[in-house]
Amino acid sequence: MDMEPTTLEGYKSLPQPQQCSPPIRSGSTWARTDQEKSEAFAIHLSSVFKPNDADTPEDPEIEAILKQDLQMCLPLRHTTPKELTKIISKMNPNKSPGFDLITPRLLKELPRKCLVFLTILLTPHLEPLTYRHFGRHLKLL
């Protein structure tokens, strides 16, 4: 060859190795052609993936456990404006605002009336989040 093997073009022009697929044994014979291999694979998949038998007896104890409401943690206590004030006072005033553009400085300057309104607004919506009902969707509003 008169091409240098250091160039990429030289490597691209070299013949690529042939990919051979080995034969598959289906039953007592070997599947050599693509058609025979696909049929053997289809038979294998149909024998592996079968639906479960639905004739199994149901255990009433397991059914009772699955149907009961699951509570993952204790219910939350009601928040107070004092707790909100304490949390807001611990916030770093130099922190950047979130996607709602509310800064810690803005929260620290809120009047008491606004904090009371926030506690009234948030407390009933935090309660249902602790009660996880299996198979049901909770709506906050």
Automatic annotation (TrEMBL):
GO terms for molecular function: RNA-directed DNA polymerase activity. Residues 15-32 have a biased composition (Polar residues). This is Probable RNA-directed DNA polymerase from transposon X-element. It comes from the Eukaryota. Keywords: Nucleotidyltransferase, RNA-directed DNA polymerase, Transferase. Residues 1-32 are annotated as: Disordered.
